Amino acid sequence: MAVDPRGADLKRYLQEDPGGPVVMLNLLRFAEGGRESYDRYAAALSETFLPRYGGEVLCAGDGGTPLVAEQGQDWDAVLLVRYPSREAFSRMVADPEYQQVTHLRTEALTEAVLQATTAWAPS
């Protein structure tokens, strides 16, 4: 299972950019002992990279018992992270300093969903 975005994924992500802010949905399944590694990654993200690229964590929490889901569709953690633009997120993941800590996330996870969301227009 892929846990990190690949070049082709990032290219498509930027091509589909509707403009404006983006909220990244993160669904995480930890490897045995992976939570500690992810916590180190999250600390670096919060202390250095989110401020640098204008991001903010909107919600972060442990996954609970799913009310509606197929077997195996439960997640250990769920995060919503807002960035001012898709470009800002892309610049962050390309940052050489970020690249030095991203292995902590990769090692921590057995499975992940990283999905861009766009706010619905008010009706």
UniProtKB/TrEMBL annotation:
Gene3D superfamilies: 3.30.70.100. Residues 35-111 form the DUF1330 domain. PANTHER family: DUF1330 DOMAIN-CONTAINING PROTEIN, PTHR40257. This is Uncharacterized conserved protein, DUF1330 family.
